[in-house]
Write a structure and sequence with these properties.
6-stranded mixed β-sheet; 460 residues
Length: 460
């Protein structure tokens, strides 16, 4: 039950959402009416027939899984393409069906069907989440005991999102999807805190959505269901969870007598340290940034490099800052010895976006010298990352040529806001953002542009 203070805070978030406009000037909530209509149509024509076929034993598991994947690629309406969705589904199936160390097709399929079926009531929902979590935990133990790495196991923390996604397909107006972004936004707004019990946490999440739907409907004078509540907290997460912006105190006319307790600066809810939060502004060379760097006794370029190195260090890599004074070398490296891969990175401060074609010869040289050194440390994969404000669309052919002509595994163009998003999510939940193939490595092993939005879609 929300207090009056919490209700006021929630209504403020709703009002901010209702007032928000897209770059074209259209209200976001009106756009989402179309978006939600698409979701309901995709459920009716695509997802529900697939799910019903699997639950009835008419559609084989692998056909069901691939059908869900292709549907979500064609209609990205749920964020199921992220690590807690389709990737979890793939790893879960691979481990469960493994003929050597899995639990066997029949037992796995039975457990999955029981978990995916829409719960009869809230007590059943809690039991289905907790029972499936215990099933996966035992399956993982068996998998590791057979000599496999823990990093190849499905993450139990993904289960509430995974199951609730399929429950909402069957009951769109009853079961909210347990989005990490929504959970974080509710916590940051001091509206709700999940319990340690996964099943109990989901029921609390469901209850707060139901209460907010009633509150928003009354305060907003328009209908709010689960989808509409989701949009409020998607908006909160996207608008306030990436880069910390300092709050301003009320002006003197709003203060009463200048008393200390009347100053109402908002406390920050970002987890991102200032040295990382400033990355996008430095990458863009915003007005005043070069002067601030000079006043700090450094150049803007070197400050950018140091902030990037700090980001990789916080993420858990063995990070080394190279660059100035060390000859013709890239700006830095980040190594994950546990998962046997490394990232060679270069930083580019650009107000108008970076064109990789201007430095392809230098990149070739860096790759050829650094990959040899890094692979001598028994690393299997080495990725090259360029970090800048944004990227001009002239990179496809150059990336293809570099991958053919050098021993690099992938070349990733990383927007500065992507690193900020990684650090934010890492500090919120270290178990969610691990370095290996079910975490950050999956982001860096794809050539092309990596944005903050894409990071959040994949991880949250």
């Amino acid at each position: 039950m929300l207090t009056k203070e919490q209700q006021g805070r929630a209504v403020q978030l709703m009002q901010e959402y209702l007032a928000a406009k897209n770059p074209g000037g259209k209200k976001c909530w009106k756009e989402n009416i179309v978006f939600d209509a698409e979701r309901r149509e995709v459920i009716k024509t695509k997802l529900m027939p697939l799910l019903a076929g699997f639950l009835a034993g008419k559609t084989p598991l692998n056909e069901f899984k691939s059908g869900v994947d292709s549907t979500n690629k064609a209609h990205n309406c749920w964020g199921f393409r992220g690590f807690k969705g389709q990737m979890f589904f793939n790893i879960l199936t691979n481990v469960g069906q493994d003929p050597i160390d899995g639990v066997g097709d029949d037992r796995f399929n039975s457990a999955l069907k029981t978990a995916l079926a829409m719960p009869a009531n809230e007590a059943a929902a809690k039991k289905q989440i907790n029972d499936f979590a215990e099933f996966v935990r035992q399956m993982n133990e068996q998998h590791v005991a057979a000599g496999n790495k823990k990093t190849s196991c499905p993450q139990i923390g993904s289960i509430p999102f995974f199951l609730s996604y399929f429950w909402q397909i069957q009951g769109p107006d009853v079961w909210p999807v347990y989005y990490t972004s929504s959970v974080n936004a509710l916590i940051d707004s001091n509206l709700w805190t999940p319990s340690e019990d996964a099943g109990g946490a989901y029921l609390g999440f469901k209850h707060i959505h139901e209460e907010l739907a009633r509150l928003f409907t009354k305060a907003g004078k328009q209908p709010f269901g689960l989808y509409e509540v989701e949009h409020v907290f998607w908006f909160k997460s996207a608008a306030g969870g990436v880069v910390e912006t300092p709050s301003q105190p009320r002006d003197s006319a709003q203060r009463q007598g200048g008393k200390e307790d009347d100053v109402t600066e908002l406390l920050p809810d970002s987890f991102v340290p200032p040295i990382i939060a400033i990355l996008p502004r430095v990458a863009l060379n915003e007005p005043g940034m070069a002067t601030a760097a000079k006043n700090s006794g450094t150049s803007l370029e070197r400050a950018f490099e140091k902030s990037i190195n700090a980001a990789f260090t916080i993420l858990g890599y063995a990070a080394e800052l190279l660059g100035q004074g060390k000859g013709r070398v890239p700006d830095g490296t980040a190594v994950d010895y546990g998962n046997r891969y490394a990232i060679i990175w270069d930083a580019k401060v650009r107000a108008d976006g970076y064109s990789i074609g201007t430095d392809d010869r230098t990149i070739r040289e860096y790759i050829k010298t650094q990959v040899q050194k890094l692979k001598a440390k028994s690393l299997d994969n080495v990725y090259y990352a360029v970090i800048s404000s944004s990227f001009k669309e002239d990179y496809d052919d150059i990336i293809s040529s570099l991958k053919m002509e050098t021993p690099i595994s992938e070349i990733c163009l990383v927007q500065a806001d992507a690193l900020v998003a990684m650090v934010d999510l890492k500090l919120r939940d270290s178990q969610l953002v691990e370095l290996g193939p079910t975490g950050l490595q999956r982001l860096f092993c794809n050539s092309g542009v990596l944005t903050g939005k894409l990071v959040r879609e994949k991880l949250a």
